[in-house]
Amino acid sequence: MLNVDHHIQVIQQYPATLALAFAPDGQTLFTSRVSDKCVCQWRHLPGKPERTDVLSECPATALAVTPDTRLVTGGADGLVQVWGLGAKPAPTSVRLGQLGAAVGRLAVAPDGKTVAAFDRLGHVAWWDLSTGQKLGGYDSPGPVYALTFAPDSRHLAVANGNGTIYILRVRELRTKSP
User: Fold this and answer.
1) What is the number of structural domains in the chain?
2) 176 occurs within a structural domain
3) Residues 6 or more apart from 130 whose CB is under 8 A from it?
4) For residue 174, is it within any domain?
5) Cα–Cα distance, 178 to 168 (Å, whole number)
6) What pLDDT is attached to residue 25?
7) What is the CATH number of the domain that holds 67?
8) For a FRET experiment, which of 68, 101, 102, 126 has its CA 20 to 30 Å from that of 147?
9) Do residues 57 and 15 lie in contact, with contact meaning Cβ atoms separated by under 8 Å?
10) Rounded to whole angstroms, how far apart are CA atoms 93 and 82?
11) Using one digit for the tens of pLDDT, what is the confidence trace for 134-149?
């Protein structure tokens, strides 16, 4: 049984929220609204939240935040972008790539160097966040419902709609030579 008396904050956002992601500071939450194609930033959580519309005309169906607080968006058009939100007068973006359908979910590797995305058709791709270069891709034999990076940032688990989970190596371990 869910006990709703334990919530610490209630944020009301209209229209409905499609995607959300916490920033590493734990006090900033990014949300994507459905009908007006706006990504909002909420600060000072918990506490009195302050909302800022940070991206307009960005139909984000998936959001993720890097350890250095860059925002990654996946769109209804399949476009995956990384946004630097500190730029004035407007945010700057780097286009990483395009999937075949709406982006279902994004995952940033724990080391902050790689981002992965999937679309509802089963296409999975991953990119280097520092260069924007596509590092690889995988076509699942059916729809994909979830993905996550391993703590070592080298492996990506992809959950297929038929109940199969695939473990993919997304990059080799980089070790320093003595």
Assistant:
1) 1
2) no
3) 113
4) no
5) 29
6) 86
7) 2.130.10.10
8) 68
9) no
10) 5
11) 999 999 988 899 999 9
